[in-house]
Amino acid sequence: MVASRGNTSNPARIPALGVRALLLVFISIVLMYFDHRENHLDTVRQGIGVAVYPVRLIVDAPMRLWEWLGESTTSRSDLKLEVARLNSERLITNVRLQRLTALEAENARLRSLLEARTKVRDEVRVAQIMAVDANPYEHNLVIDVGSRDGVYDGQAIVDADGVVGQVIRTGLMTSQAVLISDTDHALPVEVNRNGLRTIAVGTGEIDRLDLPFLPNNADIRTGDLLVTSGLGGAFPAGYPVAVVDSVTRIPQDPFADVNAKPSAALDQVREVMLIWSAPAAEEDHDEEQSQDREESDGEDSDE
Amino acid sequence: MSREVSSRRLPVIATLVVGLMLSIMPLPNLIAPFRPDWLALLLIFWAMQLPRTWSIGTAWIIGLILDVSYGTLLGQHALALCVIVFITVRFHLLMRVFPLSQLTATVFALLALYQFLLFWINGVASVSAPLLAYWAPVITGTLIWPFLYMFLSGVRYGTRTSN
Fold first, then answer.
1. Which residues 15-54 of B are in CB contact (within 8 Å) with A?
2. pTM exceeds 0.80 for this model
3. Under CATH, what is the fold of the domain A122-278?
4. ipTM of predicted assembly, 2 dp
5. CA angle B157, B160, B161 (to 5 degrees)
6. Which of A20, A140, A281, B31 has the lowest CB atom count within 10 Å?
7. Where along chain A do its domains lie?
């Protein structure tokens, strides 16, 4: 009623403003409904995403320029030191890798003895994080690869130290990923020491995960390493996630209050690795629940 | 007339593109929640000054672009921007004669409504976020409005005289 009175007192200023507003609000609600219920609108999203891409590139450019400047103005002696450090690091890693190859072969042999399926290696690819902020309601990041690079929704992302998160919205050239510290993110993990399985839930704080489903008598202590268990199907098994940094057992509560610190530097990473694990999710998903821990690797093949 | 309108379009589009950049520019985690709603502020200004060219249609399209670049529910920001721009256009004659202090208070109310709509849609879609993410932009947006208003008035009247 207010609107109609306003229109008459203000003749022919903006024709049919109320009607247009109502229509657009209605369309928005329909869009949100379909976007929320199922992903029918991915093509629309990707289409608009292509238009946003140049803006993202421009926003990202100063950071790239800054890095480039930093690189190109580093002094020769600094570079020499850096090369020396990297060389020694590479030597150490190579030595570890030799042992790893032997262990992998041994592992495969033992598995074949047990007639269990062998674990295959995961494909990885390095992606740059764009210096672009996204969703204010999530802990997330934008990476510079998209569906044209073979990225898919739900893909696992790790950095050199541990799990970072997973892709949630794949665009054509860029994708968005949610960090494991997001409040809506839960990750199936197991304690590396004894195989105790649980779920690590994000807290909204970048350096803390919560393990809410551990009973008071669970065998877990400060310093325990949590690795992915592969049970959810999204993350391959065996990647480090976090280190337990506090265990509080309150006698009258059924669950212990356990916090962990993510191994990956979630707020500092500039480069991440995307993992293409062997197609495991569909066929193994159901059996995994009942199987022994040793066999439920998340990514298996008949190799 | 049409020439005047089309020549006036460029600065508005330029401010909106800059606004979009500011909206997705990376900020340190500590101050990221305090990022003002640049596009909401810009759209309020342009809808108030030039309601015939920049009205709810623009707001809706900008909202969709914002939804895609934020990865929020498609239509969420579009709806919220649409509503506040509708109110702005409805009362633009009134708002033009407001003194700056009163106008700032109005902008505060509009921003609060904008965030409330986002909050409400998030609630329906069960997206959880800290409350700081909602009220902090309202405060910083209101604080920044007088300066933005003066700057944009400069942009607007600058383009008119140069025409």
1. 17, 20-21, 24-27, 29, 32-33, 35, 51-52
2. no
3. Thrombin, subunit H (2.40.10)
4. 0.79
5. 90
6. B31
7. 10-40, 122-278
